[in-house]
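Entry:
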Amino acid sequence: MARCYSGFVPNRHPPLPDIWLITDARNDEALERTLARLPRGSGLVYRHYHLAPAARRARFVALARAARRFGHRVFLSGPAREARGWGADGAYGAPARLARGPACPRLVTVHSLRELGRAHRARADAILLSPVFPTRSHPGGATLGRVHFHLLAARSAVPVIALGGMTVHRARTLPSRKWAAIQGLAR
């Protein structure tokens, strides 16, 4: 499995998974069960910002081991240098955090056309376009909706992963095969 390493060539890696599980405090208890239920070769974006540094690293090691048993790819929320140091398959975050550092697969969060341009300049290998639908994490917050999602996705030079209020049912209503969820995959 390709991991962050010094000889990595941007945008020349195995295709990215279609389904991504994103971690945080809300879904922590169900992560191992959810990883076991995901289709083989899915993706895990490890965030866990709520943990102290040593505990965050230890939880990453445990979840990465569990994810790789099912052939899942593991991306770390953080700079590419940190992702490489932790043995992740790639890095995830905002364009400013990922614009520098060693060559490494990068997933970049995008909410607007301006951020899409920043993601392209940050050498994103794919974008997480968000929020498509209303989310529990931002109740009452603005969403892209299907039409705006499609308009922004059409402008992307890299694969688009739908994020925000995603569930299996909602994913089926979008023509994009790639999607991610925090709570929409955990049970």
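The chain has a mean pLDDT of 89.
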